[in-house]
Amino acid sequence: MRGAVERPAGLTYQPELLTDDEERSLLSTLGALDFREVRMHGQVARRTVRHFGFDYDYGSFQLTRAEALPVALHGLRDRCADLAGCAPEALAQALVTRYPPGAVIGWHRDAPAFGPTVVGVSMAAACLLRFQRGTAEGRRVYELELAPRSGYVLTGAARSSWQHSIPPVPALRYSVTFRTLRPGRAGASASAR
């Protein structure tokens, strides 16, 4: 990765957010979910997903109401809200992603429909979370290894100015990402503090 190394402002990382037992229990819950394919620009991704609270259409970029967050994930949402310093209800959308070995996610920022706070939890296998902003000589980069059971928060510049990606994962990995909604979106009355 070429460019000057710079840690994104607004990036928080918490190793061991979960205990081994909590991770085992959550992985059992996640493994039983009915995952759906991700189709972007006519291509089907290797990763599969499940949305709660609000569904996100990768083609139209629209949010629609979805099934409520399962009770088994409420404790995880509470823990993530504590990490982000917001009310649990502010984390109105949850994305559960299953990454089989070799799955990636390309450079992106979470969609503009989502608000200023993104909180993620990494489970099963470790992965690299890469960041970039700028181009050519002004390019800034940062890499962070997300250990199993760890959590991270993207706010401020880390959420709005930096892109992030995950290169091919070496082994099966799950992530749960909680997001606030942009003010003015349906159900966005509970906003991040």
Automatic annotation (TrEMBL):
Residues forming the Fe2OG dioxygenase domain are 90-182
Q: Does the keyword Iron apply?
A: no
Lineage: superkingdom: Bacteria
* UniProt keyword Ribosomal protein present: no
User: What keywords are assigned to this protein?
Assistant: Dioxygenase, Oxidoreductase
Recorded GO terms, molecular function? dioxygenase activity
* Phylogenetic classification of the source organism: Bacteria, Bacillati, Actinomycetota, Actinomycetes, Micromonosporales
Q: What is this protein called?
A: Alpha-ketoglutarate-dependent dioxygenase AlkB
Q: Which organism is it from?
A: Micromonospora coerulea
Spell out the InterPro entries in the cross-references: AlkB-like, AlkB-like_sf, ALKBH4, Oxoglu/Fe-dep_dioxygenase_dom
